[in-house]
Amino acid sequence: MRGPRPATVAACGLAAALLVGGCAPMGRQNTDGGVRQVQATGGPAAGGAGADDARATGGTLTAADRLLLVQLRQSALWEIPVGRAAARRGSQGATRVNLGQIANRHVRFDAVNRAMAAKLNVPLPNGPNAEQQSWMSEITGKSGTDYDKTAVARMRTEQGLLYARAAAVRASTRNTTMRQYAQQVETFLNGQLKLLEATGFVTVDTLPDPPTVTGAPPPGVPGRRASPAPAATSVLAGR
Hints:
Shape: flat
Largest sheet: 2 strands, antiparallel
Order of helices and strands: HHEEHHHHHHH
Strand content: under 5%
Low-confidence stretches: 5-54
């Protein structure tokens, strides 16, 4: 199915976009993780380092760190209702069970994400973005196996992008609190990906294009099963 394959994956340039992107401040964090609206000020831009970054618990908090928290929130805001609907509407048992579990896991992790955002003073949105809203409408308009496949494909795209972003934050963040949290996020998202893939609806035509890389070796000899290289210890023994 080519329909749900998102052009946005290629547009993001996955590797290049992992540590960039932005979200306009939507409010200041309440202690319970909610958001209260505030007037825009003439302070530092959302993507730059400012006084708020310096005061963040655990060290400097970058724009990429804040964006991960925002995107996890938005992911929950559209995947919870879609997952709950799929638990009723899915044409296959695996779709109903697994997407229902995905919604429940989002509910639990949203509380974790809100607590972390409050700790780090990161404003969170209270609604999905425009593209996510269009996905919800698209999924709602489907039926039968098309419904299952579209819901799974859209969710799989979202979780895959978030997984890559969490890994980039884990590798680059200057904030020790965020570094530990990114590990939790990776574990959570890995579980979501497994549930989606277990539905049987994650197929080649629903996956994003692989990232463009340089320096990769050419393919090996067809039909050769043995490793083309000796064990690393045997190579190092002669040095």
